[in-house]
Amino acid sequence: MRKTIYIFTIVLGVLGCDDYLDVQPETLITPDLALNTENDVAIALHGAYSFLNDDGFGMEHNVIADAATDNGKIPTDRESAGASSDRIPHAYNLDLTRQNTAMELWREAYQAISAVNNILARLDVVEFDPDFEARVQAECLTMRALLHFSLTEVFAQDYNFTSDQSHLAVPYQTETEPGSTPARSTMAEVYSQCLSDINKALPLFESAGDVLVKDGYRAGGEIYFLNYYAALGLRARMHFYSTDYTSALADANELLSGPFTLGPTYTVNEYTNDGETGEFVDQWYGLAPILESEAIFQLDIDSDDGNFANRSLIDIYTANNGNAAHAVSQDLLDLYEADDARLHWYLDEAATPALDLHVFKYPGGLGINADAHHFPVIRLTEFQLMAAECEARIGDAARALSLVNAITMRAGAGAVTSTGDQLVEDIITERRKELAFEGHRLYDLKRLQRGFVRNDCASTTNVCSVTYPTDLYAWPIPGAELDANPAMVQNAGYN
Amino acid sequence: MGKFTIYFGVILFLWQFNAFGQSTVSGTVTSENGDALPGVTVVVKNANNGTITDIEGKYNLSITGESPVLIFSFVGYEKQEVEVGSRSTVNISLTESLQSLDEVVVIAYGATEKRKFTGSLTTVESQDISQIPQASPIQMMQGRASGVLVEDGNGQPGSMGSIIIRGVGTLQTGSSTREPLYVIDGTPTSSLSALNPNDIASISILKDASATSIYGSRASNGVVLITTKTGSVGGTKFTFNAQYGFSDIENPNNFRMMDASEYKNYYREAYTMAGENPDDPSSGFYLPTNADSLNTNWVDDVTRVGKTQMYELTMSNGTDKSNLYSSVSYFNQEGVVIGTDFERFTGRVNYSLAPVDNFKVDLNVLGAYTQEDLEFNQGGRSGIFSGAFNIAPTASPFASASTPDALSGLGYNFNLPSNANHNPIASDAMNFNERAQIRVFPTVRLTYDPVENLTLASSASVDYRVGERNLYQSKFYLAETDNGRAELENETFTDANFNVTAKYDLAISADHQLSPLLGFETFKSTYTNQYSDSRDFAFDGVNNVAFGGVPLSRDFAYNSNTLVSFFARLNYSFQNKLFVDATYRRDGSSRFGPENRWGGFYAFGAGYDLTGEPFMQSQSLLSTLKLRASYGIQGNNAIGDFGWRNSYSSGGQFIVPPTGGGSGLPNAGSQPDTPGNENLKWEQSGSFNVGVDFGIIDNRIMGTVEYYKRSSIDLLAPRLISQTSGFTEIIDNVGNVDNSGVEISLNSQNIKSGDFEWNTNFNISLNTNEIVALNGEADTLFADDRTVRIVGQPLDQWYLPQYAGVDSDTGNPVYYTPEGGVSSDINEASRAISGQSSLTPDFYGALTNTLSYKGLSLSFMLYFKSGFDVYRDNLQNLSLPSGNNQPASNLTRWQQAGDQTDVPRADDQGAQYDSDRWLEDGSYLRLRNISLSYLLPNSASEKLGMSDIRLSLRGVNALTFTKFNGFNPDVGLYEEDSDYPLNRTITFGLSATF
User: Fold this and answer.
1) Would you say the pTM of this structure is higher than 0.90?
2) How many CB atoms lie within 10 A of CB B841?
3) Which of these, A92, A86, A87, lies nearest to A71 by C-alpha position?
4) Is residue B218 a contact partner of residue B636, using CB atoms and an 8 Å limit?
5) Could you give the C-alpha distances from B581 to A403, B104, B182, B631, in angstroms and in order?
6) Among all residues of chain A, which has the CA nearest to that of B726?
7) Residue B451 distance to chain A (closest CA, Å)
8) How far is A365 from chain B (nearest CA, A)?
């Protein structure tokens, strides 16, 4: 009896220890262990990039820029799945609400911002090669600026909406603090933070060079990672969108004199794969980088990417590998001359009868690796047209003409010959034609403080024209954010 | 428990034993109709010796003391006391008992007489649930116990259903966080899958703190104790059961989609309203009214009448030293949706051996294999059932001359733009999604009585489940472009449990009895999941994931948690009428950070059996009366295993071509995974329960009425946080919820006259639920876009824009605005509390009647649940016009100015907006079970060399009365397109013993 009680007591004592209760997750590690060495940091940085390939920055930010303007249309042959909200039909219909907004862009942009903030917070702790540290810091700061700026393009009114930029933009996050409830920064604050991050990053890029690629920490060339010219291009874009045309011109000129050359003349050929046939622009077809000689920063979207969530631009725009949720309007098509090679960015997938053209600017491999395509976030042409518009506005009109006509000539379109205000207009139109479906039109309209008219207006919407100013230019903050963050203020016109 | 008390008890025992001289008494115990009763317990009153009767009902016993009294007791029979006097032979016959407090019930770590139990407990007996043609013991519990809300969930063959006991006391979403703790033969487990319900002897549902607190950190949602059958004393007996029957869809109000002409009218109207011309072949909106077009009823085509079969053979054998129960069973159910099936093979051995008087070993082993054919996809366009709702009835399942070549695969039509080209009939024929599970669940228990009245017990068990799921999508299935895709998923669940208990029964005197229990327990649960998929298959026939040309992903998931516990219970009884108990348990759980790992839980209970008191003798109405009350604290740790840890995961790889071109290379990535919360602590419930058990008219009517109040605090829940942190939610202790309610259950023997008997069982449960506090700055917490948690309101209230109907001039939907007007702009609509969540119905219960005459028996249960609203998410999705078929309920749409209706015009896109337009009252009354059986007269079965030959006809969900217009109102919060319809089943059965 006594022995039994002893055994009982021993069993209690031995098994009661706390080690038994310390169960380690096999698939997770603590942030300290995750960000401890150079290699850890390189891997965490890839994790941050991977958010850019997801539905938010990789799709919504770009689809909205055209669908929400006179470039877009809901195709009449849209399949019913194309109407589901994750294909953002509201971007065209403009029936925006706290639920029908750019939900993924909001969430994923801040996920990436949090990821780079975690890395920045560890820079003092981790032992680095100085070049490595400089390069990582530069990429993190640039990504933080790029994402905050992209958020303002969708969720805030344009830079000049108030004369002192006191209107609300988005919270500028420089550290990760779950449970905090930040209020919206003003547009002035976001601009100043972004520019400060970029200005800090530029010299770091210069001193570090492409050390991560060289040292074998990553596969792929510089165009897949934020680099000196990407940061410079972002700064140029920010100046341009704040209508500081002098600063924009200076940055654009530095880019134009950089190591890039404008892509070659657009050529067209017929491609067939997976039951789909069409004539496409060679330079935009396939799985290789688009216009590699002028590529500054590109995304390589692929369904094997860690964060890829099934809504590539191919999935949104084409019927062969998706649901053709968004198409191109006749308003835009009418701007191209008949011989313009860029008309081969669009294809009628329905044999008969003729229906709306689908966007095939990113045909990928027509079904080879169904969702895979490149997307040019920053390419030289943007700065060629930016410099042209700036010159036309504040400088040398002759240079403006030569810059813009390099673009028209490449596409096989007629040259621009106008002068004065008409020249500015023609460059804006050329910008609309060349950069269509690359994530610019809406943000250009906001910069210009213009509304738009949809002559080719689909039956799914009541919004066939918009006059500036409009609530439709500052999209509603997602309901999930408003519900969780009492400091968050909704944009005018939404609840 | 001190050594002193043990020795004291031993001395007391020896003293009693030697006090008087000895003699023996023997006899035979029979039932009312003269059959020998083996296994009857015979004890000498106020002494400690006793025996049980043998196979022939005979016993032989030493007796001591003056004027000894024998007590005969046997489950299901009235206890009887007989004075021996000078007799040496006492033969008696026992009468079958009406339910009374003598019933022995299974409780935590033991069993006790109902009289002595101070907590709240409902027992479901084997005969109530055996032979019901359903696979899940959970679904069978519906209507059987008050305070126990069972949701079928999903009609998919093999699905389990879920239980909520006494209201939802947790803020977490997902039914698994509200589930009670399941304990099978003393072993906690997370699953009741792959059990043969006919192996269950009884189910005890523990509801209040006194009953459950000894299970500590996992007890706040209640505990369900399942005890499997043991062999009965007597010769070897074989029983064979067989059932065969059919199922179809339960569709009380004939929910249907439009037919071809309704469909065409609808869309012609929509196109015309939008300014398009449906008669113009070049418009893209061409939809002529030609009468010769197809009319395919896709929903009919993907559903069927399914067959159900059950076969079972059991063997039972017992002696005074050992007993054995063994069964093998086969269950096969074809689902009502094509391509869905469930098969289950089970084998069980329950063996108990007592080689010497004070030592016993029990071995319970379950081995089971299940095989499921699942819907290829559940929900969405690619789902077999859900896809069928979308497809235009004008389309054919099969390719024809007009199908474009590029869209016909193996003769099927993939030109179905109304459903993203998914063809469910082709999907059923060409694709598959199968899951197999093996479960092995052995429990070994040793019981040793080193001295009289002291019982040491230890049990060890492993519940091991391993599952494999294989999916293949044919390379000729054209709605997807993967050129063949396969998935393979392997899961393992391992629940290991070890416990030791010591129990001592101490009779301080005849009036005072004390029985302390001490225990120690450890539990470890581990889950792994390996998943891989691939695409690009060379041949359709070689479709294992390894043969896909392009590997897609490989995932591994791992969860594990441990629990260490110490517990104690002290029961005291006075004159076998006043009972007091106290329990305490200390648990350590790996699910919390080191600072908050340990928690203590306790309960006190008291019961008073007034039946023997003088005032009871002076009246004749009440024949039994017992009062009881309890209070205690239980816990809940139903959160993710690693949620408290701030962590990174690998993932977010980033694939780009290498410099100089070539195919993509991955850049490995890592990402923030969980924000973590070191301050996370136990969720706790303080439960108060008061109950009265009574019997009226010689216990012809037995009843229980209970009131409870359960205050749950520090509730664990994911709290939505600002997404600007990079996270969407954090797990936290966020609030307090109160549940209080009344439960009534009545058992009545209405008529027992000769061969005719009529019994009625009725139970009803009323629960009110209220959020008392929510931490944080807001007193509002959003569960999702449609529900809200607000202090002062029940959990998960619908919080939706208020639909004001249709503007009769324009046909547009309009919503109430905060100013009290109406507007067609959803951005101007006010959101408000609407309806009532299905988590918190007003009341539910059941009425069961059993009538028998000679061998004929009829039993039927009417189950009701009232006062809750279901959000018809599926109806909302289907009502968005984009070429998909429309619910027939949209036939009442607005068509011209002046129409008064609730359904907007055909081209209206308003169905994309949430509002209370999609809420419907789910209250229903259902004929849940009905069975008619006939037991052949003994003379007939004996001629066949058998006994107890029984023929039966059984029905499940035979009839439903409801205003709800979907298939099944009892689907939880949402009616979704992924819901599998409820089955209505009828079977014919045969059973025989030989």
Assistant:
1) no
2) 24
3) A92
4) yes
5) 92, 18, 23, 11
6) A111
7) 8
8) 13
